[in-house]
Amino acid sequence: MNIGKHAALFFGIAILLLSAGCARYSARPLNRVVSPGIQQTQSVACAYKPFDYNDCRTYLGRNVLAKGYQPVNVTIYNNSDRYIKIAKTSINMHCVPAIDVAKTVHTSTPKRAATYGILGLAIWPLLIPAVVEGMRSSLANHKLDDDFLRKELADQTIAPYSSASGVIFITTNEFKLSGQKLKITTFDAVTSEPLVLSATNHLLALNT
Q1: Is 3 helix (H, G, I), strand (E, B) or coil?
Q2: Closest to 200 (Cα-Cα) out of 187, 181, 185
């Protein structure tokens, strides 16, 4: 009987060790998107790069493409002496809020904790990992939310001779229907004059 209990305990701990670290969140900071010559123009310009699977894992820590969202890394360069206002509502495609996308790729805290909890009914030491795993999963989700919000392209005013970068999220269907062509309408912060930017072909754009 004792042998059976020890075997069950060993099996439960083995599962714990194999799955350790899954409920974590880690992603690299975003880079600007550049295209040949774009920084030398004397006006307002834009470059963008849709994320592929590897980009999603690197910069977002999750494959949001699998959830039906296309992340697009956007950099707007203000190479003029004017203050330029940008807003996501002035983009030619609907931008899904980053927090809504983040929630679709959350680690399932109740599911992970329940896995250990069920084992803990037979092997009481595993009740402690059940609590720890639930807390770790919840923390990972909070970090994910904060990172997505921090990396989202913000509505803002860009000072002269500076730039702004961030990610926007578009449903994959809408992005495909648009032909992957991004247009952004910016405004002179003083005169409210609209400036329509046809973003540089993303095939020429690189993260740097």
Answers
A1: helix
A2: 181
